[in-house]
Specification:
With about 100 residues, the protein is an alpha+beta fold. It contains four helices and six strands, in the order αβαβαββββα. It has one domain: RRM (RNA recognition motif) domain (Alpha-Beta Plaits, 2-Layer Sandwich). The strands form two sheets. The protein has a four-stranded antiparallel beta sheet, with helices on both faces. A two-stranded antiparallel sheet has the order 4-5.
Length: about 100
């Protein structure tokens, strides 16, 4: 897999923004479901030219959604996805996400 196929998009929430602003830079990404820690760390290093220290992976279950229609309620779910939390060394930061 190529690096741009492994890293799908950054996750920008209040919790991930707080983790990014701490002493150790922790960036959260939505990644390919079959990617492992070593592939994710290599993709981060290739795409953003930074050195990741460690990577934590979380498999996120899809949320249940209800829709009302003429036939009654329809129950479905959003898709499952994989989240990676990558910790960078102290001096590194990803400028594309920081907005600088």
């Amino acid at each position: 897999m190529r690096a741009d196929q492994i890293i799908i998009q950054p996750v920008l929430t209040e919790k991930s923004n707080l983790a990014r602003e701490m002493d150790y830079k922790r960036y959260t990404f939505k990644v390919h479901p079959k990617a492992n820690k070593f592939e994710i760390m290599a993709a981060i290093k290739e795409l953003f030219a930074v050195t990741p220290i460690k990577c934590n992976i979380v498999s996120v279950k899809g949320k249940t959604r209800h829709t009302r229609s003429r036939g009654g309620y329809i129950v479905g779910t959003t898709g499952d996805w994989k989240k990676a939390i990558v910790t960078l060394s102290k001096g590194d930061s990803i400028q594309a996400i920081e907005g600088v």
